[in-house]
Amino acid sequence: MAKVKKGERLPINQSRKFILSDKTQFVIKEAYKTARANLVFSMATCESKVVIVTSCAPAEGKSTNCLNMAITMAETGASVLLIDGDMRKPVQHSLLKLDNKKGLSSILGGITSDIGKAVKKGVRSNLDVLTSGPIPPNPAELLSGKRMAELLEIVANHYDYVFIDTPPVTVVTDAFLMNEIVAGIVFVVKEGSTTHVEINEALQKAKMMNAKVLGMIKVNCDYKGKSGYSSYKYKYNYDYKNN
Fold first, then answer.
1. pLDDT above 70 coverage of the chain, percent
2. If DSSP codes are grouped into helix, strand and coil, which group holds residue 204?
3. What is the rounded distance in angstroms from the CA atom of residue 20 to the CA atom of residue 29?
4. Does residue 149 register a pLDDT over 90?
5. Cα 67 to chain center, whole Å?
6. Residue 119, Cβ neighbours under 10 Å: how many?
7. Is the pLDDT of residue 207 over 70?
């Protein structure tokens, strides 16, 4: 894996290599399935099936992992919508090579009222994507507004699960603006990058904002398993821990 400084994103062409596909190592696929099972268990008593995915700090892999969790959930046959709610530094359209002329900001800003035309259908089997759309001047106001609540109500009735990619919580509070209408938050933390101070700060903010934390996905860990997978060049262990 390419080495980058803390807070520095991988180039998009490098990030695409970590999107789940037929070429993904078995151990990584199984780890995501474990994360999926834990997430479903965490949401068992939740009326909403809308999940916020964020990180404690920038460049921790939250967008790629949000996408991979959506892909993994869609592989069960469930209908899934991935929303790029990071209207500050969106990347889902770049990761998936999708047009971003219309998207979430277009709907929330009243530029288009046709959700069906804004959603990219069949990006993967059972997976649709709503890209961020053009970067607006007021992303926080749009996410916390009435139109966002109405949008989530509509898509929640149409899809089995909805995943929303949002900015890091130690930078802005966007991830906490939908607490009343989502099941909860999943944090992505990066081994050797995310600090205990950042994790504690993120959890304290979640507590202060009355947000439900569904769990954490730990990435960038060496996998030293018992099945010979430690010989792989790229060694990953995705550890989903419930709080």
1. 88
2. helix
3. 7
4. yes
5. 6
6. 22
7. yes
> DSSP letters along 104-144, please?
HHHHHTTS---HHHHSEEEEETTEEEE---SPPS-HHHHHT
Q: Domain segments of the chain: what residues?
A: 24-241
What fold, for 24-241?
Rossmann fold (3.40.50)
Segments of 131-219 assigned E as strands: 161-165, 184-190, 213-219
pTM for the structure as a whole = 0.88
Confidence band for 15, pLDDT divided at 50, 70 and 90: confident
The CA-CA-CA angle for residues 94, 100, 101, to 5°, reads 155
Write the burial class of residue 139 (CB in 10 Å: 0-12 exposed, 13-18 middle, 19+ buried). Answer: buried
Rounded CA-CA distance 31/237 in Å is: 7
Work out the pLDDT band at 8, boundaries 50, 70, 90: low
The amino acid at residue 115 is I
